[in-house]
Structure formats: structure tokens, C-alpha cells
Design a protein that fits this description.
Layout lengths: L3 H13 L2 H8 L3 H15 L4 E3 L4 E3 L1 H26 L7 E5 L5 H10 L6 E5 L2 H9 L5 E5 L9 E14 L20 E4 L5 H10 L6 E5 L2 H9 L5 E4 L7 E4 L7 E8 L12 H10 L1
Parallel strand pairs: 3-4, 3-5, 7-8
Antiparallel strand pairs: 1-2, 5-11, 6-9, 6-10, 6-11
Length: 286
């Protein structure tokens, strides 16, 4: 099969007049060039050059090939120029997100983001997100704030408490405050993605509450939807409440969390005033 390299080598010999200068132009050895031209002649089924002592001349078949080879080379160069002039796609802005962040907040952030880089998201635990940020696998993360984050490029977005989530038609949905004993007979839904799952389990156990469970799942959307349709109740950050779900405080259940946007140390611009990501995140969590 004839290749572009064959035609470029053929044209180099035509334009320089001999194999030595053509090999120099192509930055290959003369024997390599001679072998390539011999291969082209085998493909063409005829000789293309008459080899003389100091120069080479085209045969009739070679003369016919010249115009075609030049036209093909022009088209190749035009195609390469078209690609060279095309804008280089921007690399994506990679955002790591905690699974327990409300889907509505994340969808709002994605919809509002108007930065030049396309936004991509990937889930992970707090530890996984921080590792990926340190290794350069993501550009920023949405996670739980730690005291040491004050020394990193960061932007606190939301501080909230944990609540008992019930369907809006539940008998306890109108309460302003509930005790652990009030929910002792309730069927529970366990959110395995909860950052305080162990603390919550101990909190109920210490108060003598050992409820039956309808569902244990790491999928927060599924858990909250099961609450909405009346299959059980659960504890969750207040921001996970949605239409049809009511969030009621539990007495002495004083756990809180702060959602923070943390940027890689080499990308402090992502959390600065005016940053497209920072503005979208602020609006999403307001």
C-alpha cells in the first residue's frame, strides 16, 4: 500500500536531484531512502527513476506520478493546517464531591457554573477527596471542613445541623423538637454515607433506642425518597430535606457540619472573589 511517506521521499528525490541530498533533507540515511524508493517502485509496478552517476532522472511513469504526489502532499498540508488552527479544547475543571452533599445543591452549582473550563464531578469520601486533591487528580473538592483547612485555599459554604427527617404527613412532622424516646417505635432508614454514622448509632443506643430498619443504603437520594413515601425515618444534614420531607431537631443531637470548597494549592484562584466556581458554589448553597 502506498503511504504518504513514500510520496514525500519520492518528491525529495525529484526536488533535490539525487539520493544523497534527498536523504539529508529527510534526515534519514541514504540506504534507507534507496530501500523506500525501491519499495515504492515495487508498489507502482515500474521504475520511477533512471539512476545516473551524479543525478537521477524521472522515467515517464515517474513524471506522471509527480503531479499527483504534489497534489496529495498539498492536501495533506492543508488538512494539517486546519487542525493546527482549530482551538485547543480546554482541560476540564475537576471537582471532587462528598456523596452526602445534596443533589439539588450540586445540580444548582453545575447549572450556574459559567467558567471557561467545562466542569466535571467525581464522588469520594472525605479521605479519598483529600488524597486526590493532594495528588493532583482533582482541582478542587467539596467536603467537610477541618480546622487545618484554614491554612489552605478554601471557601466555607454552608454550616448546618443534623436533623430527623420524616415524611410531611407523619404524626411527628409538626413537632419543633423531638426526644429519642419519641422515635423509639419508628422504622429507621440507615444512610451508610453519613459521616457520623458511628456517632449516631451510639447516640441512639445510649438512649435505649434500637429500632428496626427498612433500608440500609449508601445512596442518599434513595434513602430520602424512601422517607418521603413513608417507609421510615432517618437522620441527615438538614440540607438533604426535600419536598415532602420535614426536618425536625432531636434534643441533644447536636452534631453539625460545615461544607467547604477547597482548591489545590496551585489553584487558589478557584476560591477567590469573582471565580466562576466560587460564585456558583456560593449561589448553590445559599
Amino acid at each position: 500500500m502506498m503511504k504518504r511517506a513514500h510520496l514525500r521521499q519520492f518528491l525529495a528525490v525529484v526536488e533535490t536531484g539525487n539520493f544523497t541530498r534527498a536523504a539529508e533533507r529527510l534526515a534519514i540515511s541514504q540506504p534507507t531512502l534507496s530501500a523506500a524508493i525501491a519499495e515504492l517502485e515495487r508498489i507502482a509496478g515500474t521504475r520511477l527513476f533512471l539512476r545516473e552517476r551524479r543525478q537521477v532522472r524521472l522515467t515517464e511513469a515517474g513524471a506522471r506520478l509527480v503531479n499527483h504526489a504534489r497534489a496529495i502532499e498539498r492536501e495533506f498540508r492543508a488538512a494539517e493546517a486546519a487542525f493546527a488552527e482549530a482551538p485547543v479544547p480546554l482541560s476540564p475543571l475537576r471537582l471532587g464531591v462528598l456523596p452526602s452533599i445534596a443533589t439539588l445543591a450540586l445540580s444548582s452549582l453545575a447549572r450556574r457554573h459559567a467558567g471557561p473550563q467545562p466542569l466535571t464531578m467525581a464522588e469520594g469520601t472525605d479521605a479519598e477527596l483529600r488524597r486526590k486533591l493532594g495528588e493532583g487528580q482533582v482541582d478542587a473538592i467539596l467536603t467537610l471542613m477541618r480546622p487545618e483547612d484554614a491554612d489552605r485555599p478554601s471557601l466555607p459554604l454552608l454550616e448546618e445541623g443534623y436533623r430527623l427527617l420524616l415524611p410531611e404527613g407523619h404524626a411527628l412532622a409538626g413537632a419543633s423538637l423531638l426526644d429519642a424516646s419519641d422515635v423509639a417505635a419508628e422504622t429507621m432508614i440507615a444512610r451508610r454515607s453519613c459521616e457520623i454514622l458511628g456517632e449516631t448509632s451510639r447516640w441512639f443506643t445510649q438512649r435505649g433506642v434500637r429500632p428496626p430498619f427498612f433500608l440500609r443504603s449508601s445512596n442518599d437520594d434513595r434513602c430520602i425518597e424512601m422517607v418521603r413515601v413513608g417507609m421510615g425515618v432517618t437522620t441527615a444534614p438538614q440540607s438533604l430535606a426535600r419536598d415532602g420531607v420535614v426536618a425536625v431537631p432531636l434534643a441533644d443531637y447536636d452534631f453539625r457540619r460545615t461544607i467547604v470548597l477547597i482548591a489545590a494549592r496551585e489553584r487558589p484562584d478557584l476560591v477567590e472573589e469573582g471565580s466562576a466556581l466560587a460564585e456558583a458554589a456560593r449561589a448553590a448553597f445559599t
